[in-house]
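Sample entry (261 residues):
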Amino acid sequence: MSPRAPRRRVIEAVILRLWDVGEADRMLSLYSHEEGKGKALAKGVRRPRSRRAGHLQPLTRVRLLLAQARGAPIVAQAEAVEVFPRLRQDVHRYAYAAQAAEMVERLVWEGEHYPGLYSALVDVLRGIAQEPYPDWPLRHFELRLLNWVGFRPELHHCTVCGARIQPEDQYFSAGHGGVVCPRCRGHAADARPVSRRTLQYLRHLQRSPWTEARRSVPDRDVRRAVEEVLQGYLGFVLERPLRGAAVQRQLHRDPPRAKNE
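Predicted structure, serialized as C-alpha cells:
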C-alpha cells in the first residue's frame, strides 16, 4: 500500500489469503477497491475472545479501518460486508473460489491496482456461489485477469506464422501464448489439440462481459476442454500449477461423501 497513505483510512477489500504471525496475530493478503493488492496486520485476532476473527476470513468481502504503521497497516476495525455462505456449504464451489483468489494473489504484484479488477473479483465469487455451473464464471475471470496482467492469449491468429485462424480444429501452445495453426504445429513443441468448438467458447469468454457469457454455457466436455487449455496456460505463466486446480482435480476423482453415508 502507498507510503503516503493517511494515518487512518477505510477500504473495502476481498481477503485473498491469511497466515499466522507471532502468537496471536494474522497477516491478511487483500485486493481492495481503493488501493489494489496489499497486506494488513490483524493484531490479536487469534485470541479466543477476538471479535474480529469472524469478519476476517478468506474469500470474504470486508470493510476495514486501517491504521498506518511502519510496516503493514494495522486493522483497527473490521466488518464483513459479504460472506458468500454457499461457498462454505459446497466444497467444489469453495475450491473454484479459492482458485480465483489464488490467481489474484500470484499474478498481481503488491501495490498494483487495476481498475475494474475489484468488481470482477466480487462478481466471480458471487457467480461461483450462485451459478448452476460454477466453473464457468471462473473461466471467464481467468481470461479477464490474464488480459489485465498482460498475458492475454492470442485466439484469432496463429502465434507462429501470424495467419488468421480458420474455422477448423487447431492447436494451443502455452509457450507461444495462444493458438497455432495445423501447418505450424511442428514449430511448437508444447502444442496440444484444441477443437473448433472449444476455441469458439474461449473466444466467447474472452470478448464477452459476464452478462453475455453466462447465457451460453457449453456441455461438460467442452467446459473441461476450456479448463484444460486455461489451466495449462496459467501453469506456464506462473511456472507452476495452481494449488486450487490440483484440489479441484482431486475432488473430481474422489468426490466428498454425503453426511449420512
